[in-house]
Amino acid sequence: MKLRFSRKHLCVPYAVFLALFVIAPIIIMLYYAFTDRNGAFTFMNFGKIFSDVSTISAILTSLSVAILTTALCLLIGYPVAYILARSGLKNSATLLLLFITPMWINFVLRLNALKEFFSLINLLDKSPYVNTVIGMVYDFLPFMILPLYTTLIKMDNSLVEASQDLGANKVTTFIHVILPLSMPGILSGITMVFMPTMTNYVISDILGRSQITILGKLIENHFMQSNWNMGAAISMFLLAAMFLFTWFTGGFKDDGENKARGSGLW
User: What digits encode the pLDDT tens for the residues 9-39?
Assistant: First the structure.
């Protein structure tokens, strides 16, 4: 008897993995988010998110850190990606690799090295907030450079030449041609930096000496205190916020729509 094999069968391991490690945990988190300690159905956990002072403080701190980190990554990453992609350098791919290489080193090891550097120059205990932002930028900058570089390197250079032939100077060409065409990379970079920054409490713990409480740290505190219901509610709130943020920035559009906007994200 000959067994028939279809390429669809290759989806089975992925489907099993998805069900066990993505769907099942989300269902468990939803259960705890909508129940109290006695297992009774309630919306109070979500109400406490906007009424509890510590939670509101963590949300505001997370937003400020995420916005500042994303802005700094964009201000630093865009010129770097632009120079690498549009300057015509023969070794641009090699230079890009230099920005990616630190990502191959263990995350905690890199943070502890940065911590020792801050301690050496006497900055570790002066401003936990500034140290946290610097650590965030240091860790997430490659995630901003990569999509920007990928978008800019695929840009049709004839459009830039046409703009210059029509009398536009370099500033006008950048504002009206290059910047709009690089918008998919900008949105992709913002998405990849903004949302993870709101929950990456390891950086605030190591560089901020645990004096900065962001949402990720708050969730950990609730789970460590066996308050799974509140921790799950905040997690679901973050998941919903991530979904809406991705939706508004066009992250759910298919490849055809992305290409119509200028390029793919990768």
Answer: 778 888 999 999 999 999 999 999 999 989 8
Burial class (CB in 10 A: 0-12, 13-18, 19+), 122: exposed
Alpha-carbon span 261 to 186, nearest angstrom? 12
Q: Find, among 69, 68, 70, 49, the residue nearest to 59 by Cα.
A: 49
Evaluate whether residue 21 is within a structural domain.
no
How many structural domains are present in the chain?
1
Q: Is 41 helix (H, G, I), strand (E, B) or coil?
A: strand
C-alpha distances in Å from residue 226, one per residue of 23, 43, 230, 258, 259: 22, 19, 9, 44, 47
In a domain, 257, yes or no: yes
CB 224, CB 170: distance < 8 Å = no
pLDDT tens, residue by residue, 182-236? 999 999 999 899 988 988 889 999 998 888 899 999 999 999 999 999 999 999 9
Query: Residue 38 corresponds to which tokens in the numbers above?
Result: 């006695």
Q: How far apart are the first and last CA of the chain?
A: 44
Please report the pLDDT score of residue 262 as a whole number. Answer: 41
Give the span between the Cα atoms of 62 and 64, in whole angstroms: 6
Supply the mean pLDDT for the chain: 86
Which residues contact residue 83 at a Cβ distance below 8 angstroms, ignoring those fewer than 6 apart?
A: 89
Identify any residues that bridge with 41 across adjacent strands, giving them in sequence order. 35
**Token digits for 165?**
């032939």
| Residue-number span of the structural domain to which 140 is assigned | 27-34+41-261
Residue 259 has pLDDT above 70, yes or no: no
Q: Which helix (H) or strand (E) holds 30?
A: helix 24-33
Output phi, psi for 157, to 5 deg: -65, -20
